[in-house]
Known about the structure:
This protein is of the alpha+beta class. It is built from 16 helices and 41 strands.
Amino acid sequence: MRRLLFLSVVMLLLATFNDASSQDLILNDLEYFETQGVNVLVYNNLFTGGFNDEKTAGIELIHHGVRTSQGGAVRLSNTPEQWDLVPAIPSRIVNHSSKAIESILRYEDYDFDSRVVVTAKGKGVEISVYLDKPVPTVLEGSAGFNLEFLPSQYWGKIYLMDGRNNRFPRYAVGNTITRPNSEKLKQFKGYVTSDDRGTGRFIDPLPLETGRTIILAPDDPERLVKIISHDTDLMLFDGRVLAQNGWFVVRSLLPAGKTGKVLTWTIEPNAIKGWTREPNIGFSQVGYLPSQQKVSVIELDKREKPLEKASIYKITDNGDAAEIFSGKIVPWGDYYKYHYVKFDFSSVNSPGIYYIQYGDFKTNNFLIGNNVYDKITDATSDIWIPIHMNHMFVNEAYRVWHGEPFREGYLQAPPNTDHFDLHFQGPTTDTKYKALELIPGLNIGGFFDAGDFDIETGSNISVVQNFVQTWEYFKPQRDQTFIDQKQRYVDLHRPDGIPDILQFIEHGTLQLVAQAEIIGHMAQTLSNSVLDNYHHLGDAASITDGLPYNPNLGPYEVASDGRSSGVKDDMWAFTTRNPGLDIRAATMFAATSRALKGYNDDLSARALQQSKRLLKEATEILANLPQSRTGWGGGSADVATNLELYISTGEKQYVDKFQELLWPSLDRSVSGTILTALHAIPHMDVSFKEKLRPYIVKYKEYINELEKDNPYGVPIGLGNWAGSGAVVNFGTTICFANKHFPDIIDASHSFKTTNWLFGCHPYHNYSLVATVGAARPKAVFYGNNRADFSFIPGNVAPGILFRQPDHFENYDDWPFLWGQNEGTIGGNTSYLIFGSAFKNLINR
Ligand SMILES: [Ca+2]
Ligand SMILES: [Ca+2]
Ligand SMILES: [Ca+2]
């Protein structure tokens, strides 16, 4: 508060004496440079390497509300990719008196340190790079200072290099050269992101332009940035040449053999005078039931004075619109960067077409009606899930989504393999197979993990459990998909007389039973052996060549009988035994055995057999494991697993263990455990429910606390993967809590989840579900078709990603950040449960 008072006095003085200076950047208490419309962040978000795609860190620019630039750092290539080396930042010093942030950037692999100092200078910042020792010889010509700009915010716009006009290309069409691999610097952990096809050479993009001064987007004041390099040339590159998720890169090489201040840039992002961010009027794009509470949360620039009132307009049958309601705006308060107010229009309750008018801003239309939620899961169950069926050909009308992937099957992963998707093969194979030997029969059933194409066994176990739970609670008979396991063929929009969910259960079980029967226990994952086809975009059937690798053939050679090849593109099975995973599988097999009975009796019996065997073996392994190793490879079964084991076997030991673990777990975190407890109620006696009651009261308090935590009243995650999953589970919990304790948990809280998912959230008001029914769903997602800036219907985006220290974001013109735009088979089947439970609740 004191700072604000001081600031406004300063700004008043500046406004009086020097009007231009009112746009000068200040270094604020959150440790970034700021003026209205421009935020320059300096290592508020750090590089972490590896699985992180590193387009969310470094020196960053949030320009008129959009994070348009990031990656500012000393980097070792023209257009760094994910899995290229990133600098550690061991030191970052914020100096308010000199208005500077000074950071050490360190490349451990090359013992190379540089010091980057960013200082507020008028309407921009100066970036200087200092070296105590010259650039290591091996990095000469490679080490440079880079800053990256978001292609979707710049393509089609103008850039000037030393006064020469150019246009940012809509698509990557640029010149490259190849260089010998001996000149290629190592990538993260020695990974290799591209296949050189035996040439021994790597691709190096050439600059689009070179000069000393670049002006980006003089034709768009919101995106206009001027960069001057004082000592050395600037180059502009297009990172999309190497990777579709690449950005435009402005870069200067660090000079060889020099120390001291070796590079200086002045960066001046344009700040539009008097700019304030447009209000983000949050509401449900799917619409509202006539009877439900209807509250729009409006996100406002803190400089914006909230209006007194907002209105609802009704669109009539002849296309006219008339104001039918005007209501008060109620302040909520500040939450991170913005100010929030609420507009309650619950009294508007007749079915029809409406929009919200807030001052000059009018939203797109939405529906009020009793049927608005009827279809919220259909796109997920009819489109997204079948498209993610592995080992099948998936057709939709005139379009093939993918051919049959991985016909050559899976090879045994060699011992001591550390995998780029965070898996590993331990010191032994734990199977009868030799390293790189074909394990026949694993190429059946299962679901692609997410935007990638691996079988994550843990996820697939959860997925089958989600399907079984949906089936057992709600018995959905929906049949819109033809699924034929003999033909290995899926045809969307072609009913085949069998409820799709039974076919999904069967498909997941086929893979997991195959693992248990063939390997003898559960695999950790079935995944790519090489990184250069892990980041595959497009048809899954083209990831591998369909032929097993034959070491007797030369590279890229095909055997004369056409049945093997010298291409190292195969998928591997990571088979290190994890008794904890086996126990989870045992519970899933018991559940799926119940569900499949009467539909596929043979598979049901096989699943039950594996359930009993795995449970027995894994329990013995765990009992014999030395105490020191129980933390490795999964410890004993958790609360939910013991419940599942009790439901399946009826054995007292499991219900005792369940209760032993449950109550302390509820005491530790009621919100984290309560859903499992609710699922237990039908299987326990009356006293269990009564013992649970005070925890439900505590959960009610948790719900109330969320109302104070943020304007949306849902659990908002601040991690590297945004928090839709937690919001979905919150909604599911409310549905089941209301079912068993309607006197404590009101059904209306479940609408907080639909509101959030369907458009009432920070940053924008688009539905986070690529779904039927929403007036304005998100347009781009991180699916396997992300290179087409498209989506797979029914996907649920992780959504609103938090970036330090105060920025929420969800790009809808740039699909490539998985933390905000990917969807997973686990997450989307959780949404299926939520949607089913929610529809069940509102129809009760
Ligand atoms: Ca994966
Ligand atoms: Ca069907
Ligand atoms: Ca192959």
